[in-house]
Each structure stands twice: as structure tokens, then as C-alpha cells.
Amino acid sequence: MVPLQLEGMPTWLESLFTSEFAFAVLLGLCILEGAMMLRFMPSELVVPSALALIGSSIPKTVAIVAIAVVGTTIGQFLLFRLVRRAGREYVIQKRWFPLTESRLERFDGWFDRWGGIAVAGSNTMLVVRGLLTIPAGLSEMDGRTFVALSALGSLSFQSILAALYLFGGYLLAL
């Protein structure tokens, strides 16, 4: 069962995913994804690729989702701390970060309206995944609260991806 098209994945990454270092590679990718620095692979393909290449038994699926949640949460917390330390202007000026002033203002509004729950909610959505980390880092939100909300949203996102991959494979087998 391999419904995922892996042709677009860099061959070096595919070979690492199939090596004995697969779980460490997954953790590293997820940290990069959480910190919004994963540019060579869409975030919605990380868990399905891991399932396709590492395996999709129940224990492996649980391990892959757990590692993905831990990794993305670590990455987002690092970004949260960077934003807290460096400030708004730093984020806007950096080219590696996909956020304009107007877009940041929109996310500030979401954060002001919904509070911390917006962090968990944004981590579940594809297009805005993790972008509420910036307003959270600029706010007075406690780091522990941020980690809990980030992990909750990441658990939701990674579990949905895993379920879609597994269910999609089941449908293709019919």
C-alpha cells in the first residue's frame, strides 16, 4: 500500500527515511517544519512519506505521529522564543519567513480575538499552520501554555494526515 507519490521527494531524503536513522530524520524534519524552515518538502507530506517509507503498522504509525508532534512542537517553541527575543520587526525583515506586515496584522487579529486556542486551531489548518506562533511569541503568553496548545494542534494535524494516508490506502486496495 503506497498511494503517496514519492517521485517529488529528494532521493537523499528517501534514502535517509529508509535507513536505520529514519526516526531521527523524521524528528529533524519535524523540528524544521515547526520552525517554518522546511522549504524542500510541504509539511503535509512529512507524515505520509514517513508512513510510506518507514511502515504503517499500528506501532509504527503511533511512533511516527508521536515523533512528528514532538518535533513540530520543539520547532514551534524555538520559533516562539526567537520571536519573543527578537521582536516583530525582525520577523518582518527576514526573507526566510513567509509573512508580510499586513498578513501579520491579520494573524494578530485572530490571536486577539481567539487567544491561545488560535494557536492550536492554526496548527490543525494547512495554509496557516503554525503562523499564530508569531503573535503568541509577541504576546504575554506563557511558554508552557504555548507548548501545550502547539502540541494539541500538532497532534490533531499529524493524526489527520496519518488517518488520511491509512484510509486512502485502504480505499485504493478495494
Automatic annotation (TrEMBL):
InterPro entries on file: DedA_domain, VTT_dom
Domain (VTT): residue spans on this chain: 51-162
Membrane topology: Multi-pass membrane protein
Protein name in the entry: VTT domain-containing protein
Entry keyword set: Cell membrane, Membrane, Transmembrane, Transmembrane helix
Chain segments annotated as transmembrane: 21-41, 61-80, 114-134, 146-173
Locations listed in the record: Cell membrane
Alphabetical list of Pfam families matching this protein: VTT_dom
Organism encoding this protein: Haloterrigena salina JCM 13891
GO CC, any one term: plasma membrane
